[in-house]
Amino acid sequence: MANQPQVMVVDNDENILSAFEDFLRKENCQIVAETSAEEALAHFTEQRIDLLITDIRVRLHSGITLLLQVRAAYPHVPTIVITGHPDVITEKEVLEYGADYFFLKPLELDKLRFALRKCLEIRTK
């Protein structure tokens, strides 16, 4: 288990976190689930995180704020940003902020799987 990639998922919705847990288990990854940006940032100092997946809307801060903070402190960690609110921000803006991928909810699992594997490929090189 120690060799499994550690994927942090940050989302307000417990159902989304549960779905990610199932998805990531099938992808041979361990999930670190958080519902706020503060909890997520604290985990970065406590353990290795290989990939961040964050919703745009998370408790107390935005997912973009979290993305920018992680990019500044941990530039090697790839990031996938998700949202169910396409009117809040565009894919172009999210990528300009430093995300590696941007997806709208409901998520297309094949596209998410591809992005996950591409992001984690870097870890194994």
For the secondary structure, the number of strands is 5
H-E string? EHEHEHEHEH
List the strand order in the largest sheet. Answer: 2-1-3-4-5
Largest sheet: 5 strands, parallel
Mean pLDDT, as a whole number?
91
Specify the oligomeric state: single chain
CATH architecture: 3-Layer(aba) Sandwich
What does this protein structure show overall?
By secondary structure, the protein is α/β, with parallel strands linked by helices. It has a single domain (6-124), classed as 3-Layer(aba) Sandwich (Rossmann fold), CATH 3.40.50. Helices cover 45% and strands 19% of the residues. It is built from 5 helices and 5 strands. It has helices spanning 14-26, 37-46, 63-73, 91-96, 109-124; strands spanning 6-10, 30-34, 51-55, 79-83, 101-104. The protein has a 5-stranded parallel sheet with strand order 2-1-3-4-5, with helices on both faces. β3, α3 (63-73) and β4 form a beta-alpha-beta unit. α2 runs parallel beside α3. The longest helix is centred in the C-terminal third of the chain and has 16 residues, at 109-124. The radius of gyration is 13 Å and the shape is globular. The mean pLDDT is 91.
Topology:
Elements: E1 6-10, H1 14-26, E2 30-34, H2 37-46, E3 51-55, H3 63-73, E4 79-83, H4 91-96, E5 101-104, H5 109-124
Quick overview:
The chain has helices at residues 14-26, 37-46, 63-73, 91-96, 109-124; strands at 6-10, 30-34, 51-55, 79-83, 101-104. With 125 residues, it is of the alpha/beta class. The protein has a single domain (6-124), classed as Response regulator (Rossmann fold, 3-Layer(aba) Sandwich).
